Input
Amino acid sequence: MPATSKVTHASPAPLPRGTGRRAFTLVELLVVIGIVIVIYSFLIPALWWAKENGKRVSCQSNHHQLAIGALQYAHNNRGVLINPMTMNTLSNSVFPGVAPWVGSNNDYYSLISGTMWPYINGGNAIMVNGAAVIAGFNSTQIAAVDAAVALSPPKNISLYVCPSDFVETNIRTYSGNSFLNGWEGGGLPYVARLDSVKRPAETFYFIDEFDTRGYNMNGFEVNAYPNTSWIDVPGRFHFSGNDISFADGHVEWWKWLDPVTLSMQPGDINRSDPLPSNSNLPNYDLARMQRMVGSQPHSGGGYVPSP
Output
């Protein structure tokens, strides 16, 4: 009988302990996803706050540069304050016919042709089609300026708009104090010269204005104390507050406190603010603004500025 050979098959060597592979279970995946969601929910508010705070800082920088530009204008014009309106000063003004800091329309030409522009752009004029941009352009020239600026925006054109302004079509967010060489709105006399501003650190120069028209017609006006109604509507683009620059160049962030201020909408011109039930003082925010316009009278109580 022929010899037979037994064929044996070698079994694979066992894997070392700990090197085995297995898939995640559904429970484990759900736990990991849940942890990621929880971490994400904590990060989102912090990231949003950091982003918005960065925008507020940028807005304050804009305010500071505008205030410094306005002060430089005054120093270069024998103390005459820059016109904060969007039209020439009136014939009955102390200095009639002074051109405005910006024009009255929601276009780039209104910014570049204003008297503020040389003071925030290093004195450099904008050239379009070989000509410097000046006031008095016709509609065809204005359209050419806007097209050129939109295609290649000058570095400092963004100084006129708050990064948190949620009206994306706005070319300008900031408005000047009407009482600084503007006109006698709100029942208060205006001042025309820098040396007439008695308390520059307590007199606002520029403020965020809440206006969906985009051009914030004329300056920011405040009714005289003890009037209890607003004229123009302040912005609230930064944590229910506003950036405000002052006539000495410094900038502050104000948080609005009164519910009426926080509920105001564009178009609420001359909106009446009811007095608090337990006080004879007006809206705290309005009283604070009345204190800071640079004209008398001021609101009473703790709102009177120090001498």
Remarks:
- Residues 299-307 have pLDDT under 50 and may be disordered.
- The beta strands are 127-128, 131-132, 174-176, 204-208, 241-246, 251-255.
